[in-house]
Write a structure and sequence with these properties.
Structural class: mainly alpha
Bound molecules: zinc ion
Strand content: 5-15%
Helix content: 40-55%
Number of domains: 2
Largest sheet: 2 strands, antiparallel
Shape: elongated
Radius of gyration: 21 Å
Number of helices: 9
Distance between the termini: 18 Å
Length: about 260
């Protein structure tokens, strides 16, 4: 989970329109929030991913759900309140279910809270920094089942493994380049393109980006490759910007 910046309320969602849609929901229980002018900015806000588990959405198998932070059952007046709407996957939406974030206990709202203040990464698991029963982090992880092995941990491991294979290859070439004394830039293009691919996997729009940025930025091979590229003047402004963006969403790997 990463911090998300909520865009302005869609202009179509006037006060009058909100009232009309709330009434329609109360009368018919229809999904009145399913309007392009609502779903599109929500989808873009989270880079096309679930705001909780960071699974990529938008395919037929994984359509985007509009999640109501204050659940629609208890707070029907907020079914189209802009600040109450979040883009999520079907599984997180159903895990959260009728949980009342006011009465049953708060969970992380990624448009308000910075998830990295509450969560850290241990091995392939997203853990709460405060492990006390009833802490916001722990409730979030448990309620949304953010370490479900089949649904989330295994896919994270698979992507990390793909990244590792690429990185090992680039790192080897970078070390070779660093050891050469003839001034020729062996495999320069391969290394530069390779590190760009790795950094892309750690950007906010990448799948499981909180996890991937943490895995990449704490990888010794990555850090050494970066040092070599800096020394060889191959570490561009573009890479530095990408590295810094990844740093912003990276989770701690111990409780701080
Ligand atoms: Zn999800």
């Amino acid at each position: 989970m990463i911090k998300l910046e909520r865009p302005d309320k869609p202009s179509e969602l006037t006060e009058e329109k909100e009232k009309e849609l709330v009434q329609e929901f109360k009368d018919t229980e229809r999904a009145v929030w399913r309007k392009d002018y609502i779903t599109e900015p929500l989808f873009n806000m989270s880079h096309g991913k679930c705001c909780y588990c960071e699974t990529v959405l938008g395919t037929q198998a994984r359509p985007m759900n509009v999640e109501h932070f204050h659940c629609k059952e208890a707070y029907p007046n907020e079914v189209v309140t802009w600040d109450n709407l979040l883009p999520s996957c079907g599984q997180c939406n159903s895990n959260k279910g009728k949980h009342d974030t006011i009465k049953d206990g708060l969970i992380i709202n990624p448009t308000i809270d910075n998830p990295k203040e509450y969560l850290y990464l241990k091995y392939f698991m997203i853990k709460s920094k405060d492990n006390q029963l009833g802490s916001i982090g722990r409730r979030t992880v448990e309620l949304l089942d953010l370490n479900n092995r089949e649904r989330l941990v295994n896919p994270r491991i698979l992507i990390a493994d793909t990244m590792r294979q690429k990185l090992e290859n680039i790192h080897e070439k970078a070390v070779d380049l660093a050891g050469r004394q003839d001034g020729k830039q062996y495999n320069r293009t391969k290394i530069v393109n390779g590190i760009r691919d790795i950094l892309r996997m750690a950007q906010p729009d990448a799948e499981y980006s909180a996890f991937m940025s943490t895995i990449i930025l704490t990888d010794e091979d990555y850090l050494e490759t970066r040092d070599i590229l800096i020394a060889k003047e191959l570490w561009t402004k573009e890479f530095e910007v990408m590295h810094n963006k990844a740093s912003e969403i990276k989770l701690d790997t111990e409780i701080k």
